Every structure is written in C-alpha cells, then in structure tokens.
Amino acid sequence: MLYKNFINGEWLAGDGEKPNINPSDHADLIGVYAQADRRQAAAAVAAARAAFEPWQAVGIQERHDILDRIGSEILARREELGRLLSREEGKTLPEGIGEVARAGMVFKYFAGEVLRPGGEHLPSVRPGVDVEVSREPVGVVAVIAPWNFPIAIPAWKIAPALACGNCVLFKPAGLVPGSAWALTEIITRSGLPAGVFNLVMGSGAEVGAALIESPQVDALTFTGSNAVGRSLAPQMVARGARVQLEMGGKNPLVVLDDADLDVAVHCAIQGAFYSTGQRCTASSRLIATDGIHDRFVQEMVEKMQTLRVDDALKEGTDIGPVVDQAQLDQDLAYLRLGRDEGARLAYGGELLSRDKEGFYLSPALFTDTDNSMRINREEIFGPIATVIRVKDYEAALAVANDTEFGLTSGIVTTSLKHASDFKKRAQAGLVMINLPTAGVDYHVPFGGRKGSSFGPREQGSYAREFFTIVKTAYTAP
Ligand code: UN1
Questions:
Q1: For residue 102, is pLDDT > 90?
Q2: Can you tell me the distance from the alpha carbon of 346 to that of 387, in angstroms, rounded to the nearest whole number?
Q3: Ligand 1 centroid to 367 CA: how many Å?
Q4: What distance in angstroms lies between residue 251's CA and the mean position of ligand 1's atoms?
C-alpha cells in the first residue's frame, strides 16, 4: 500500500516514493510512503496559511475536544501503534507501547491547556487606564521531527502548536513515516478544519528547505542533530521567524563513592543502552569516583552480559537493533576510534547475527577514557558508553560540565550535600538525582543549555512560550 501525504484536507500521492524497512528484519517491508517535492510542500504552506483565520473562529471548547479525541484514540490503540513504532524504529515493544501512551497523554494534557490560556488584567501606572496581557498564536508552524521518538516528539510539538491555535506542517523523519502517518490519520478524523494540519513526508533537501525558505512559515520547531539544527537557524532568524532547536547531548552520569551500587548500575544501563542508546538524553559518559570505580565497572559488565539484543518485537528483548546502516556505520567508526584513542573496550561492541537479518550490535563499554577523547566529546547516538575515572566529587562535577552540550546531567549519591550542590551547579537543562538521565515527564519543561538547545523550552505549560506571541493592550475609558 502507498501511504500518502495529507495536504489541505486531502490525501495526495507525491513526486516519489520511499520504502519503510524494519531494522530488526530487512525482509519486512512496512509500507511505501509518498515523498513530497518542493511544489507540494509550498501548497501545504499555502493551505496552512489560508486555514489560519477559520481555525481562530473555532472556540476553545471545540479545540479542546479535538485534542482530547486525538489523545483518546492514541491511548486506546497503544498496543497496535506501539507495535508499528517498534517495527519501524527498533526500540523494544514495551518501549514502543510506552512511547505511544506518552504521546496520547501529551494530547490529553494540551487539550486541558486549551482551557487555561492564561492572561492578565491589571491597572496601568496611568490612572484610569487599563492593561491586558494576552497570548495569540504565532501562525503557521513547521514541525521537523527526528526518527528516535517517532510519535512522542511529534506529539509534544504538534499538540501544543494546535492547542495554542496555530496551523501545522509536519515533516517526519524519513526512517519512521509509519508512526507519522498513523498519527496523521487519527488527526484527520478529529474534526480539525482542512489545512490546519498537514503531513509532508519528504527529504530535507526538498520539503525541509521549502518550509525553511517560505516567508509564510512563522516558526520552526526542530529536534535532531546539531549539524542540521544549526544549519536551519540562520535562515529562520534572518527573516524574523521563530526557531526552537532541540539537538544533541553528551550527558554525564556521575557515580559517587557513597552511591547505592544497584541504583548506579540500573541508572547507567537504562540511560546508556535502552532504546539502543539512541536518545539525546542517553547517559554516554559515566563518571565514577576512585572508591567505587572498579566495583561499578565490574557490575556493569556483569549486567551487560545478561542483556538480550534481538528483534524489537520479540518477548524478552532488552535492546533492539540500531536504526539503519548509516547509524550502524557511525557506531562502528566510534568503536574503532575509541580503541585508537587508547580507551579499553571492557565489553561489547560486536555485530551480532540473529534469526532475522538486522542491525544488531551488542552494548559497548569503554573504560580508561579521559574527557578529552573524541568518544567523550562527540555524540555517538548508539549503545556505547564510556567510563571516566575521577578523584572526588569536585573533579566529577568539573568533568560533567566540561562539554559543549548541556541537555541532561545525572548523579547517583546518598549524600544530600552532594545532590543539592549538583542540582545547583550542573550546567544542564535537566538534572537527575538517582535516576537515569533519560526518560522525562510530559507536564514539565524539557530542554537543554549550551550546544544542546536553542529557544524556549518544550512541553508542559512552558510550551506556550514558543507557540504564542504576547500582546499588551492599553485601554482608556
Ligand atoms: C526522553 O529521554 O524521555 O531526542 C526523551 C531525544 C529527546 C527526547 C528524550 N529529544 O532523545
């Protein structure tokens, strides 16, 4: 079956077609997806622009109900959609179902936010004058999403955009069109006026470029690599459009001498290797103090030996395949680089063969690394973590902060003093105490500092900072 784009309320074939292959089983073709070209992307932009006025006329009760219906259907179909997600992206089935549930809850949450638009009414400093502060939608919003969270990230961009009254152009990642299409199909039956939401699958060079260049697009919310994010921003800023970028991480997890070792190993395994390490919130640098380092490494290696790498849909699989050949090549290149830089591969990093042909790689742990090595500075985006040995807490904090990224930063400790200090001094948007660096809630802000993010936070009520524009109105009687 050919899955089409959705533009101005119609399903349209594209200029080309792209197959969607299961990374756990190369013989499994999930579907063939239409690829829009520039002309179609421009038509979608025009449709979104034209739909903006009629969308404003829809009241907040109806807008709430639309988002609520979308959320309810996603939640009701979580098993089926989770299976599709795991089949196309490669995270395990429990992770896939969990992600779909998260997406459903995001729509439910923003359905509620429709009814809480906020606003202020206050006296002016000039007697008799009245001041109102209100929020209006930004207009037409382009959503460019990555492949590693095929439904949750689109949900946490699309839901607040619609909740705030914007029109949306959704360009999913080329590797995961199945979840994007399924989400779109649900949205098309929710009661939205034609043109308010458009799905434009296609390449960055065609669709991405058309969205970035169009003066009709008022804002871009992007999650993906640093290289792409940074290349998109200047054009948007140059024409005065808004841009929100969520990019890479090189997230530290500090393990102090006084840590509960089981908690430390649990956090490190979950944060570094689950979802095949393909998360911008992954714990990629494990920073252990002298007194616990050796025990931590030993327990990590023992635990890693028990992790099952296999078909994402198979029961009992802990780690699914790498998403595609290009990502696998990148992972293998970093495994070679780590050895060349003098790190010791304590475990893993091997290509595995399973019943079906897929991109199977065993989780890898490097020890004897220092923070200046490229494996500790660049985002790998695979099931590969490093251990950095340090003298004490102060040294650990310094290493944790010594990175160009700043998304999430974690510490495992039983010391309230160190936990409190770390919360204050970690240079990251998210700080995790005795928890994995990955795995976030949907009702609170998400985002990083330094090279990880640009623009206002995503998620929770803070999401409105990006998706609305403030108006201050003065009235004299
Ligand atoms: C999570 O860890 O729960 O692309 C979310 C990413 C992030 C989302 C992580 N933007 O990995």
A1: yes
A2: 10
A3: 25
A4: 12
Ordered domains of the chain (ranges, CATH): 2-247+452-475 (3.40.605.10), 251-433 (3.40.309.10)
Q: Which residue has the least CA distance to atom 6 on ligand 1?
A: 280
Catalytic site residue from 89, 246, 379, 458: 246
The predicted pLDDT at position 204 comes to 95
Residue 60's contacts (CB-CB under 8 Å, 6 or more residues apart) are 114, 115, 117
Active site residue 315: no
Rounded to the nearest whole angstrom, what is the distance from the C-alpha of residue 112 to the centroid of ligand 1?
23
pLDDT in tens, 344-388: 999 999 999 999 999 999 999 999 999 999 999 999 999 999 999
**pTM score of the predicted model:** 0.97
Per-residue pLDDT band for 340 (boundaries 50, 70, 90) equals: very high
Q: Angle at the Cα of 79 (from 75 to 84), degrees rounded to 5?
A: 110
Q: At what angle do helices 177-188 and 78-89 cross, to 10 degrees?
A: 150
Q: Which residues line ligand 1 (CB under 6 A)?
A: 146, 148-149, 153, 223, 246, 279-281, 438-440
